[in-house]
Amino acid sequence: MSFLSATLDRVKPSPTIAVTTKAQELKAAGRDVIGLGAGEPDFDTPDNIKAAGIAAINEGRTKYTAVDGIPELKQAICAKFKRDNALTYTPDQVTVGTGGKQVLYNTFTATLNPGDEVIIPAPYWVSYPDMVLLAGGEPVFIAATLDADFKITAAQLEAAITPKTKWFLFNSPSNPTGAGYSWDELRALTDVLLRHPHVWVLTDDMYEHLAYGDFTFCTPAQVEPQLIDRTLTMNGVSKAYAMTGWRIGYGAGPKHLIAAIRKVQSQSTSNPCTISQWAAVEALNGTQDFIAPNNEMFVRRRDLVVQMLNAAEGIVCPRPEGAFYVYPDISGCIGKTTPNGVVIDDDEVFATALLDDTGVAVVFGAAFGLSPNFRVSYATSDEALKEACTRIQGFCAGLT
Ligand code: PLP
Fold it and tell me: What is the mean pLDDT of the chain?
Protein backbone atom coordinates (compact mmCIF):
# COMPACT_ATOMS: atom_id res chain seq x y z
CA MET A 1 0.00 0.00 0.00
CA SER A 2 1.32 3.38 -0.95
CA PHE A 3 1.74 5.94 1.82
CA LEU A 4 0.19 8.55 -0.46
CA SER A 5 -3.52 8.87 -1.14
CA ALA A 6 -4.80 7.18 -4.29
CA THR A 7 -6.57 10.46 -5.11
CA LEU A 8 -3.20 12.06 -5.61
CA ASP A 9 -2.51 9.63 -8.46
CA ARG A 10 -5.38 11.27 -10.34
CA VAL A 11 -3.57 14.58 -10.63
CA LYS A 12 -0.30 15.66 -12.15
CA PRO A 13 2.13 18.22 -10.82
CA SER A 14 1.68 21.62 -12.44
CA PRO A 15 3.27 21.40 -15.90
CA THR A 16 4.21 25.03 -15.65
CA ILE A 17 6.67 24.26 -12.89
CA ALA A 18 9.33 22.84 -15.23
CA VAL A 19 9.62 26.08 -17.21
CA THR A 20 9.44 28.27 -14.11
CA THR A 21 12.10 26.25 -12.31
CA LYS A 22 14.36 26.32 -15.33
CA ALA A 23 13.94 30.08 -15.69
CA GLN A 24 14.88 30.53 -12.02
CA GLU A 25 17.93 28.31 -12.41
CA LEU A 26 19.14 30.25 -15.45
CA LYS A 27 18.58 33.55 -13.65
CA ALA A 28 20.51 32.30 -10.60
CA ALA A 29 23.33 31.31 -12.97
CA GLY A 30 23.52 34.91 -14.16
CA ARG A 31 21.62 34.56 -17.46
CA ASP A 32 19.57 37.50 -18.72
CA VAL A 33 16.07 35.99 -18.41
CA ILE A 34 12.82 37.79 -19.32
CA GLY A 35 9.86 36.13 -17.63
CA LEU A 36 6.55 36.31 -19.47
CA GLY A 37 4.94 33.68 -17.30
CA ALA A 38 3.51 35.60 -14.36
CA GLY A 39 -0.25 35.59 -13.94
CA GLU A 40 -0.40 38.83 -12.02
CA PRO A 41 -0.32 42.59 -12.67
CA ASP A 42 3.11 44.20 -12.42
CA PHE A 43 1.85 47.21 -10.46
CA ASP A 44 1.36 47.65 -6.73
CA THR A 45 -1.89 47.35 -4.74
CA PRO A 46 -3.47 50.86 -4.77
CA ASP A 47 -2.68 53.03 -1.72
CA ASN A 48 -6.26 53.34 -0.45
CA ILE A 49 -6.50 49.53 -0.28
CA LYS A 50 -3.15 49.19 1.47
CA ALA A 51 -4.25 51.85 3.98
CA ALA A 52 -7.42 49.88 4.74
CA GLY A 53 -5.30 46.80 5.53
CA ILE A 54 -2.95 48.85 7.73
CA ALA A 55 -5.91 50.41 9.55
CA ALA A 56 -7.33 46.95 10.23
CA ILE A 57 -4.04 45.94 11.84
CA ASN A 58 -3.72 49.15 13.86
CA GLU A 59 -7.30 48.95 15.08
CA GLY A 60 -7.00 45.33 16.18
CA ARG A 61 -9.28 43.85 13.52
CA THR A 62 -6.98 40.85 13.40
CA LYS A 63 -9.00 38.03 14.99
CA TYR A 64 -11.01 35.14 13.57
CA THR A 65 -14.08 36.19 11.63
CA ALA A 66 -17.17 34.36 10.42
CA VAL A 67 -16.00 31.34 8.38
CA ASP A 68 -16.98 32.70 4.98
CA GLY A 69 -16.47 36.40 5.44
CA ILE A 70 -17.27 39.53 7.46
CA PRO A 71 -20.73 41.08 6.91
CA GLU A 72 -19.15 44.31 5.64
CA LEU A 73 -17.36 42.45 2.85
CA LYS A 74 -20.43 40.42 1.93
CA GLN A 75 -22.38 43.71 1.71
CA ALA A 76 -19.66 45.20 -0.51
CA ILE A 77 -19.80 42.12 -2.74
CA CYS A 78 -23.59 42.33 -3.07
CA ALA A 79 -23.26 46.02 -3.97
CA LYS A 80 -20.59 45.18 -6.54
CA PHE A 81 -22.78 42.54 -8.19
CA LYS A 82 -25.66 45.03 -8.38
CA ARG A 83 -23.49 47.86 -9.69
CA ASP A 84 -21.40 45.98 -12.24
CA ASN A 85 -23.52 42.98 -13.25
CA ALA A 86 -27.16 43.88 -12.47
CA LEU A 87 -27.29 40.78 -10.26
CA THR A 88 -29.22 40.78 -6.98
CA TYR A 89 -27.67 38.66 -4.25
CA THR A 90 -28.18 38.81 -0.49
CA PRO A 91 -25.25 38.36 1.96
CA ASP A 92 -26.37 34.80 2.79
CA GLN A 93 -25.85 33.97 -0.89
CA VAL A 94 -22.19 35.04 -0.75
CA THR A 95 -19.07 33.15 0.31
CA VAL A 96 -15.58 34.64 0.68
CA GLY A 97 -12.52 32.42 0.33
CA THR A 98 -8.74 32.53 0.33
CA GLY A 99 -8.54 33.59 -3.31
CA GLY A 100 -10.86 32.65 -6.11
CA LYS A 101 -8.93 29.40 -6.14
CA GLN A 102 -10.33 28.29 -2.80
CA VAL A 103 -13.88 29.14 -3.84
CA LEU A 104 -13.49 26.90 -6.90
CA TYR A 105 -11.85 24.12 -4.89
CA ASN A 106 -14.52 24.20 -2.18
CA THR A 107 -17.28 24.20 -4.78
CA PHE A 108 -16.00 21.05 -6.45
CA THR A 109 -15.33 19.37 -3.09
CA ALA A 110 -18.82 20.25 -1.90
CA THR A 111 -20.68 19.11 -5.01
CA LEU A 112 -18.86 16.40 -6.97
CA ASN A 113 -19.52 12.68 -6.59
CA PRO A 114 -17.47 10.00 -8.36
CA GLY A 115 -18.24 10.06 -12.06
CA ASP A 116 -19.77 13.54 -12.09
CA GLU A 117 -18.64 15.43 -15.18
CA VAL A 118 -17.45 19.01 -15.42
CA ILE A 119 -17.35 20.57 -18.88
CA ILE A 120 -14.25 22.72 -19.33
CA PRO A 121 -13.48 24.66 -22.52
CA ALA A 122 -9.83 24.15 -23.51
CA PRO A 123 -7.46 25.94 -23.34
CA TYR A 124 -8.23 26.39 -19.66
CA TRP A 125 -6.66 27.79 -16.53
CA VAL A 126 -4.23 25.07 -15.39
CA SER A 127 -5.91 24.29 -12.06
CA TYR A 128 -9.44 23.50 -13.30
CA PRO A 129 -9.00 19.86 -14.41
CA ASP A 130 -6.88 18.87 -11.42
CA MET A 131 -9.28 20.43 -8.93
CA VAL A 132 -12.09 18.44 -10.52
CA LEU A 133 -10.02 15.25 -10.38
CA LEU A 134 -9.03 15.83 -6.75
CA ALA A 135 -12.71 16.15 -5.88
CA GLY A 136 -13.47 12.83 -7.61
CA GLY A 137 -15.08 14.28 -10.74
CA GLU A 138 -14.23 13.88 -14.42
CA PRO A 139 -13.20 16.83 -16.56
CA VAL A 140 -14.74 16.84 -20.06
CA PHE A 141 -13.00 19.16 -22.50
CA ILE A 142 -14.36 21.16 -25.41
CA ALA A 143 -11.77 22.57 -27.82
CA ALA A 144 -11.91 26.35 -28.22
CA THR A 145 -9.65 26.64 -31.25
CA LEU A 146 -7.83 29.48 -32.96
CA ASP A 147 -10.21 29.55 -35.94
CA ALA A 148 -13.09 30.09 -33.50
CA ASP A 149 -11.17 32.88 -31.72
CA PHE A 150 -10.64 30.48 -28.79
CA LYS A 151 -14.37 30.38 -28.01
CA ILE A 152 -16.69 27.37 -27.94
CA THR A 153 -19.96 27.21 -29.85
CA ALA A 154 -23.45 26.31 -28.68
CA ALA A 155 -23.31 23.11 -30.76
CA GLN A 156 -20.10 22.03 -29.01
CA LEU A 157 -21.62 22.65 -25.59
CA GLU A 158 -24.79 20.79 -26.52
CA ALA A 159 -22.76 17.80 -27.70
CA ALA A 160 -20.68 17.66 -24.51
CA ILE A 161 -23.62 17.54 -22.10
CA THR A 162 -24.53 14.10 -20.74
CA PRO A 163 -26.80 12.95 -17.90
CA LYS A 164 -23.66 12.96 -15.72
CA THR A 165 -22.80 16.62 -16.37
CA LYS A 166 -22.84 18.55 -13.11
CA TRP A 167 -21.09 21.80 -13.98
CA PHE A 168 -20.28 23.86 -17.04
CA LEU A 169 -17.19 25.90 -16.19
CA PHE A 170 -17.04 29.23 -18.00
CA ASN A 171 -14.18 31.76 -17.95
CA SER A 172 -14.35 35.05 -19.87
CA PRO A 173 -12.08 36.90 -20.43
CA SER A 174 -9.99 33.76 -20.41
CA ASN A 175 -6.74 32.69 -18.89
CA PRO A 176 -4.76 31.74 -21.05
CA THR A 177 -6.20 33.22 -24.28
CA GLY A 178 -7.69 36.56 -23.21
CA ALA A 179 -10.77 35.69 -25.30
CA GLY A 180 -13.98 37.33 -24.11
CA TYR A 181 -17.53 36.26 -25.03
CA SER A 182 -19.89 38.98 -26.25
CA TRP A 183 -23.46 39.09 -24.97
CA ASP A 184 -24.72 37.30 -28.11
CA GLU A 185 -22.03 34.62 -27.94
CA LEU A 186 -22.84 33.96 -24.29
CA ARG A 187 -26.58 34.06 -25.05
CA ALA A 188 -26.10 31.15 -27.47
CA LEU A 189 -24.51 29.14 -24.64
CA THR A 190 -27.12 30.07 -22.03
CA ASP A 191 -29.86 28.98 -24.48
CA VAL A 192 -28.28 25.52 -24.49
CA LEU A 193 -28.06 25.51 -20.69
CA LEU A 194 -31.74 26.42 -20.38
CA ARG A 195 -32.57 23.18 -22.18
CA HIS A 196 -30.56 21.13 -19.64
CA PRO A 197 -31.84 21.96 -16.16
CA HIS A 198 -29.55 19.45 -14.43
CA VAL A 199 -26.41 21.36 -15.51
CA TRP A 200 -25.05 24.01 -13.13
CA VAL A 201 -22.94 26.95 -14.26
CA LEU A 202 -19.68 27.91 -12.57
CA THR A 203 -18.54 31.19 -14.04
CA ASP A 204 -15.02 32.39 -13.24
CA ASP A 205 -15.24 36.15 -13.74
CA MET A 206 -11.77 36.89 -12.37
CA TYR A 207 -10.78 39.06 -15.36
CA GLU A 208 -14.06 41.00 -15.54
CA HIS A 209 -12.48 44.44 -15.25
CA LEU A 210 -9.67 43.68 -17.69
CA ALA A 211 -11.85 44.19 -20.76
CA TYR A 212 -10.71 46.35 -23.65
CA GLY A 213 -11.98 48.47 -26.52
CA ASP A 214 -15.52 47.70 -27.67
CA PHE A 215 -15.72 44.54 -25.64
CA THR A 216 -18.22 44.65 -22.78
CA PHE A 217 -17.99 42.01 -20.08
CA CYS A 218 -21.11 39.97 -19.27
CA THR A 219 -21.77 36.99 -17.01
CA PRO A 220 -24.18 34.04 -17.48
CA ALA A 221 -26.79 34.88 -14.81
CA GLN A 222 -26.97 38.43 -16.16
CA VAL A 223 -27.49 37.29 -19.75
CA GLU A 224 -30.04 34.65 -18.70
CA PRO A 225 -31.60 35.47 -15.30
CA GLN A 226 -33.40 32.11 -15.25
CA LEU A 227 -30.02 30.49 -14.62
CA ILE A 228 -29.44 32.32 -11.34
CA ASP A 229 -30.72 29.41 -9.22
CA ARG A 230 -28.08 27.08 -10.64
CA THR A 231 -25.14 29.41 -11.12
CA LEU A 232 -22.15 30.15 -8.94
CA THR A 233 -20.80 33.53 -9.99
CA MET A 234 -17.15 33.55 -8.89
CA ASN A 235 -14.92 36.59 -8.85
CA GLY A 236 -12.18 38.16 -6.76
CA VAL A 237 -9.93 41.11 -6.12
CA SER A 238 -6.65 39.51 -7.21
CA LYS A 239 -6.32 40.76 -10.78
CA ALA A 240 -8.11 44.10 -11.20
CA TYR A 241 -6.91 45.45 -7.84
CA ALA A 242 -3.39 43.96 -8.01
CA MET A 243 -4.11 42.00 -4.81
CA THR A 244 -2.88 38.53 -5.77
CA GLY A 245 -0.99 38.07 -2.49
CA TRP A 246 -3.85 39.22 -0.26
CA ARG A 247 -5.80 36.05 -1.17
CA ILE A 248 -9.43 37.14 -1.37
CA GLY A 249 -11.95 35.68 -3.80
CA TYR A 250 -15.69 35.26 -3.58
CA GLY A 251 -18.67 33.46 -5.04
CA ALA A 252 -22.42 34.05 -5.06
CA GLY A 253 -25.16 31.53 -5.65
CA PRO A 254 -28.12 29.72 -4.12
CA LYS A 255 -28.09 29.57 -0.31
CA HIS A 256 -27.87 25.77 -0.12
CA LEU A 257 -24.76 25.76 -2.32
CA ILE A 258 -23.17 28.56 -0.30
CA ALA A 259 -23.92 26.65 2.93
CA ALA A 260 -22.22 23.53 1.50
CA ILE A 261 -19.15 25.56 0.51
CA ARG A 262 -19.10 27.11 4.00
CA LYS A 263 -19.13 23.62 5.52
CA VAL A 264 -16.00 22.61 3.57
CA GLN A 265 -14.26 25.85 4.52
CA SER A 266 -15.28 25.52 8.19
CA GLN A 267 -13.42 22.21 8.42
CA SER A 268 -10.34 23.33 6.49
CA THR A 269 -9.07 26.91 6.54
CA SER A 270 -11.88 28.80 8.33
CA ASN A 271 -12.00 32.49 7.49
CA PRO A 272 -9.81 34.12 4.85
CA CYS A 273 -7.22 36.52 6.31
CA THR A 274 -9.09 39.14 8.36
CA ILE A 275 -6.80 42.01 7.33
CA SER A 276 -7.21 41.12 3.67
CA GLN A 277 -10.96 41.06 4.04
CA TRP A 278 -10.94 44.67 5.27
CA ALA A 279 -8.67 45.66 2.41
CA ALA A 280 -11.09 43.97 -0.01
CA VAL A 281 -13.99 46.01 1.43
CA GLU A 282 -12.06 49.13 0.42
CA ALA A 283 -11.19 47.65 -2.99
CA LEU A 284 -14.85 47.06 -3.80
CA ASN A 285 -16.37 50.14 -2.11
CA GLY A 286 -13.57 52.63 -2.75
CA THR A 287 -12.52 54.44 -5.90
CA GLN A 288 -12.37 52.39 -9.08
CA ASP A 289 -10.56 55.22 -10.87
CA PHE A 290 -7.27 53.38 -11.38
CA ILE A 291 -8.85 50.61 -13.46
CA ALA A 292 -9.27 52.68 -16.64
CA PRO A 293 -5.66 53.99 -16.81
CA ASN A 294 -4.33 50.52 -16.02
CA ASN A 295 -6.42 49.12 -18.83
CA GLU A 296 -5.06 51.74 -21.23
CA MET A 297 -1.60 50.51 -20.37
CA PHE A 298 -2.64 46.88 -20.90
CA VAL A 299 -4.19 47.71 -24.29
CA ARG A 300 -0.96 49.36 -25.39
CA ARG A 301 1.05 46.32 -24.31
CA ARG A 302 -1.37 43.87 -25.87
CA ASP A 303 -1.21 45.67 -29.20
CA LEU A 304 2.58 45.83 -29.06
CA VAL A 305 2.92 42.10 -28.34
CA VAL A 306 0.31 41.03 -30.89
CA GLN A 307 1.93 43.12 -33.61
CA MET A 308 5.45 41.92 -32.82
CA LEU A 309 4.52 38.24 -32.49
CA ASN A 310 2.59 38.26 -35.76
CA ALA A 311 5.77 39.57 -37.37
CA ALA A 312 7.62 36.43 -36.17
CA GLU A 313 7.93 33.63 -38.73
CA GLY A 314 5.60 30.71 -38.08
CA ILE A 315 3.55 32.48 -35.37
CA VAL A 316 -0.09 33.57 -35.58
CA CYS A 317 -1.28 35.69 -32.67
CA PRO A 318 -4.92 36.76 -32.40
CA ARG A 319 -5.78 40.02 -30.60
CA PRO A 320 -7.90 39.13 -27.57
CA GLU A 321 -10.62 41.13 -25.82
CA GLY A 322 -9.30 41.05 -22.25
CA ALA A 323 -7.14 39.72 -19.40
CA PHE A 324 -3.37 40.20 -19.81
CA TYR A 325 -2.48 37.17 -21.90
CA VAL A 326 -2.05 36.28 -25.54
CA TYR A 327 -1.94 32.72 -26.80
CA PRO A 328 -0.05 32.59 -30.10
CA ASP A 329 -0.28 29.55 -32.35
CA ILE A 330 3.08 28.10 -33.42
CA SER A 331 1.95 25.52 -35.99
CA GLY A 332 4.37 27.16 -38.44
CA CYS A 333 7.34 26.33 -36.19
CA ILE A 334 6.56 22.68 -35.54
CA GLY A 335 8.95 20.28 -37.28
CA LYS A 336 11.65 22.93 -37.69
CA THR A 337 15.13 22.74 -36.14
CA THR A 338 16.97 25.28 -33.98
CA PRO A 339 20.59 26.27 -34.76
CA ASN A 340 21.57 23.94 -31.87
CA GLY A 341 19.95 20.99 -33.63
CA VAL A 342 16.83 20.76 -31.46
CA VAL A 343 13.79 19.61 -33.46
CA ILE A 344 10.65 21.49 -32.40
CA ASP A 345 8.30 18.52 -31.98
CA ASP A 346 5.77 20.25 -29.79
CA ASP A 347 5.15 23.43 -27.83
CA GLU A 348 6.99 22.18 -24.74
CA VAL A 349 10.17 21.71 -26.79
CA PHE A 350 9.57 25.17 -28.32
CA ALA A 351 9.30 26.83 -24.90
CA THR A 352 12.34 25.00 -23.53
CA ALA A 353 14.48 25.85 -26.58
CA LEU A 354 13.29 29.45 -26.52
CA LEU A 355 14.35 29.73 -22.89
CA ASP A 356 17.70 27.98 -23.51
CA ASP A 357 18.57 30.00 -26.60
CA THR A 358 17.13 33.45 -25.83
CA GLY A 359 16.34 33.62 -22.10
CA VAL A 360 12.64 34.31 -22.75
CA ALA A 361 10.38 32.28 -20.43
CA VAL A 362 6.86 31.53 -21.64
CA VAL A 363 4.42 28.76 -20.66
CA PHE A 364 3.83 26.08 -23.30
CA GLY A 365 0.31 25.42 -24.57
CA ALA A 366 0.03 21.77 -23.53
CA ALA A 367 -0.14 23.02 -19.93
CA PHE A 368 -3.45 24.68 -20.82
CA GLY A 369 -4.86 21.87 -22.95
CA LEU A 370 -4.52 23.30 -26.47
CA SER A 371 -1.43 22.94 -28.66
CA PRO A 372 0.75 24.00 -30.36
CA ASN A 373 0.73 27.36 -28.61
CA PHE A 374 2.38 29.27 -25.83
CA ARG A 375 1.06 31.79 -23.35
CA VAL A 376 2.53 35.23 -22.93
CA SER A 377 1.61 37.35 -19.94
CA TYR A 378 2.03 40.97 -21.00
CA ALA A 379 1.72 42.26 -17.41
CA THR A 380 5.29 43.50 -17.57
CA SER A 381 7.08 46.64 -18.79
CA ASP A 382 6.93 47.81 -22.42
CA GLU A 383 10.73 47.60 -22.59
CA ALA A 384 10.82 44.00 -21.39
CA LEU A 385 8.03 43.07 -23.81
CA LYS A 386 9.79 44.72 -26.77
CA GLU A 387 13.03 42.97 -25.96
CA ALA A 388 11.32 39.60 -25.41
CA CYS A 389 9.36 39.81 -28.67
CA THR A 390 12.50 40.84 -30.56
CA ARG A 391 14.24 37.75 -29.19
CA ILE A 392 11.25 35.54 -30.12
CA GLN A 393 11.37 36.97 -33.67
CA GLY A 394 15.08 36.17 -33.84
CA PHE A 395 14.51 32.65 -32.51
CA CYS A 396 11.81 31.95 -35.10
CA ALA A 397 13.90 33.43 -37.92
CA GLY A 398 16.73 31.07 -36.92
CA LEU A 399 14.60 27.92 -37.28
CA THR A 400 15.19 25.88 -40.41
N1 PLP B 1 -9.26 31.90 -12.15
C2 PLP B 1 -8.43 32.25 -13.12
C3 PLP B 1 -8.90 32.17 -14.53
C4 PLP B 1 -7.13 32.67 -12.83
O5 PLP B 1 -6.30 33.03 -13.81
C6 PLP B 1 -6.72 32.72 -11.48
C7 PLP B 1 -5.35 33.11 -11.12
O8 PLP B 1 -4.41 33.04 -11.88
C9 PLP B 1 -7.64 32.34 -10.51
C10 PLP B 1 -8.89 31.93 -10.87
C11 PLP B 1 -7.26 32.34 -9.04
O12 PLP B 1 -7.30 33.57 -8.49
P13 PLP B 1 -6.85 33.83 -6.99
O14 PLP B 1 -5.45 34.33 -7.05
O15 PLP B 1 -7.82 34.85 -6.46
O16 PLP B 1 -6.96 32.55 -6.25
Answer: 96
